[in-house]
Fold FAD-binding FR-type domain-containing protein.
Amino acid sequence: MTVYRFSLIVNKKRLNKKYCLLGIHSPEIAAEVKPGQFINLQIPTGSNDLILKRPFSIHKVDSYRGIVYILFKIVGKGTRILSESQPGTTLEVLGPLGNGFTLIKNQSALLIGGGIGTAPLYQLATSLSQLQNKITLLLGLTDDEDLVLAKVMNEFVPKWILMKGNQKERQGPVTDLVREELASSHFDQIYACGPKPMLKSLQKMLGDMVRNTQFSMEEKMGCGLGLCFSCTCKIKDKKEAGKWNYERICIRGPVFKGEEVIFDE
């Protein structure tokens, strides 16, 4: 059930100059949220210059204390203001929103994160572990600053690779890691979240395995409720081969079957 609440920031941790971890007290959302869902937040500016709410994936949940955590990248005015907000600040929160991941049980799962697409994988990995799944986590990171994302996911023993940085021996796209892992291991389900180019490359590389893959799509959103149609993506028509439809990521997604997403050339 989606709820609209005024919720307090209860803790904040600035991980480095690029990333921030925020804890928000919202017991109703903490009790309902599923891995892969998101919330919409009103940036606390005190003015009307940032009217639209911002979508943030749920990083992890403390259901006992009623706290939901978001891990976000500081990329503009809104996220900068949010990163500077202190515990005790009140936020307008709407959630949980969207459709999350479909979970498996007693099987083997490969989780793939690209950059800040790593954020929702913590809650996913936690839930899959509780269901007795074997988890392999691969992270594609941009630079040395992104290594903090691997540290955040440390309890799941991630393997990571950088696109650029000081560690020359571990550079390249995350698909290099995926290819190596698939050559030596079998996975019943693959979960991926990251930028569209990464997901597009994965879809092409996986071949028939894409049928057992779930993609969490990243997109800018205007409302999070499906009213503005600003967050659409192309999805194959289930009834007519060769046809496709625009689907709203905030309503139908953000998680889709890997085989049904159509990426532009």
